Request: fold
Amino acid sequence: MIRRMLTHTAAATLVIAVAAFTFQALAGGDGIARTAWTLTAAVAGGDHGID
Amino acid sequence: MGSTDTRPPVARRTPGRLLFLFAFHAALSGAFIVAYLTGDEDTYAMHQFAGYTALAALAVRLLAGVLMPVGPLRLPRPAMAATRDWLRRAAMGDARAWGQRSPLLAWMALALLAVVGAAALSGAVADFVVPMEKLHEALGEVSLPVVLAHVALVAALLGLKKAAGWRARPTPRQEVIAP
Reply:
């Protein structure tokens, strides 16, 4: 049961991450490339994005 | 043909209800992970999306708990006496206590619902009331240790359960060979 929960969590994390990424890229008007850059910087611990 | 059974009705653990619990756990944990990793100013829209997803998952879970107060969907109701009793038996090495569902899980579920719920709710309020941002940040930082404690508790209880299983395994009989 724990393995099943972990699999579901990983899948949900991926789906929510993709949906959130799309939301920022399209609705936020940032574009896919800029969003990918800022996300990489944020997750890697960078202080600033493309600016 | 009148029934004499006066026991209160108990909602069964159906596959649909279990699937709901799995979906809730997946949605909340997934949204929490994404929201925590995107707390940066540059990824604010992603953070908002994940935060509102977590809030929606919590709202649906609370609604299900209120509508179905009996059975697997009921909200966690930890009991101090049962917890004390389980801790005492587990500390004494009672293999049955090690193998059964621990009352500590209800405490942990309540703590998670409270802390993650407060973090998600304060985030939504902070969208309109800017001074709430500091409180939201603090609650977000507090929620990570609680989530990690939840993972540690589940791993520890799984270890206890396995140990109980090993203990219950029958020891191989000594073969008596006739002289």
User: Anything to note?
Assistant: The mean pLDDT of chain B is 87. Chain B has two domains: 14-75, 77-168. Chain B touches chain A through 24 residues (CB under 8 Å). The first helix of chain B runs from residue 15 to 37.
